């Protein structure tokens, strides 16, 4: 009798352990909880893809900006620098520089070698406008998908909590239907409910950390671009003033 009791307990324990595995929890879950789990898993994978892409991109453009600034302040000709970057991989700072140089070249190609004061102001405004438009476009591109990380970080725990509440409701219904409060009846439903919350946290925590880090990196790089743009406009302004008739 004791051997049969021990065997029955081992079988029951094995069944409970098996039913508490993540895959079994998913298979046993209600359709609503399954939808929540799938949504959180997809959001988590997509968040990690964005994080990897943004971290890699920010590191690359930061290195490229450092090299470009060294070339820019080396004292060489701006025209030579502009010609040289045409065959290189473009990055935000080089595109900012190119936008101003293109506006300057369009003016020079018109045969304007000397400037009047009235025309100088118009050219400076066009150069500044071209750089501002380019800067806004580059920052918008760099900010792309960061909003998704913020959304996942702020909403994933609540989505997981919704799955938890729904799972607990189903668990209580199972208890009421079976009129049995043993661990074998209660544990699967509770585990299923908590599994959704765990997935919500798994999706949210990396997204929040990455969003804060990437936002900080973006702010620093944005300031770097704005500083370069201001210095370059000042340099262009001095060169243009030398050509006033």
Strand content: under 5%
Q: What's the domain count?
A: 1
Biggest sheet character: none
Query: Order of SSEs, N→C?
Result: HHHHHHHH
* Distance N to C terminus: 113 Å
| Computed Rg | 31 Å
In short:
The chain has helices spanning 2-19, 22-28, 31-72, 78-85, 92-108, 117-143, 146-178, 183-241. It is an all-alpha fold.
Describe the structure.
The chain is mostly helical and 245 residues long. It has one domain. 86% of the residues lie in helices and 0% in strands. It has helices spanning 2-19, 22-28, 31-72, 78-85, 92-108, 117-143, 146-178, 183-241. Helix 2 packs across helix 8 (183-241), helix 4 packs across helix 5 (92-108) and helix 6 (117-143) packs antiparallel against helix 8. The longest helix has 59 residues, at 183-241. The chain is rod-shaped and about 95 Å long.
Attribute tags:
245 residues; mainly alpha; 8 helices; 0% strand; rod-shaped; disordered N terminus
Layout of strands and helices, then pairs:
Layout: H1 2-19, H2 22-28, H3 31-72, H4 78-85, H5 92-108, H6 117-143, H7 146-178, H8 183-241
